[in-house]
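User: What would this chain look like folded?
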Amino acid sequence: MLEVSGLCVRYGSVEALRDVSIKVATGGLVAILGANGAGKSTLLRAISGIARAASGTIKLRGEPIAGLGAEEIVRRGVSHVPEGRGIFPDLTVSENLMIGAYVRRGQDVSADYGRVMGMFPAIERRERQFGYTLSGGEQQMLAIGRALMASPKVLLADELSLGLAPIIVKQVFAKLDEVRKAGITVLVVEQNARLAMKFADYLYVLKYGRVVMEGEREKFQHSATLVDAYLGA
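Assistant: Here's the prediction, encoded as structure tokens.
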């Protein structure tokens, strides 16, 4: 579904990603692990067209998307849940969700709206409330729901556990697993390695902008390389 090959991204003279290559199978849930500053968020931003690649290729279902505008990439089937949620606090839950369907304007999105509300009953009960009145977990669910309103083939999710209590984090990741089971391919960036290994089919570890390890979840059990990637030992 999604293939990144030899990707390099620079911010001025700083090389944030160096020769990064990943693959995400159709219907899979793949996790990107790594410490702060490893380049995880930059990878998602490059895929969604927010950050520009200096070199390398990004393909969605075999078609190149690197260099396209962010809106066009959403149209082609990639939705991005940014780090920090990025909801519109002064808009209602309903209005936030409808903004997610912006690229589908002119279409009937009522069925998708109903499915999203059914998936997230916590926000359905607050349909007419403003975004700022929601709890952190509810805001995260709203951010996921807004991304789903674009009817994506691939969902990019950045640090969903950030600032949330452990029990809420488990609930949010359970919803992400539901998204995958509904047929949407998921690529998630996460610092919580234990949690990611519980849900992901395949994992990559980034360190200093490069992939230092990859494999199925079983490969990551008791891995010294994974510890080194996090602690810099």
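The chain has a mean pLDDT of 89. If you want, I can go into more detail on any region.
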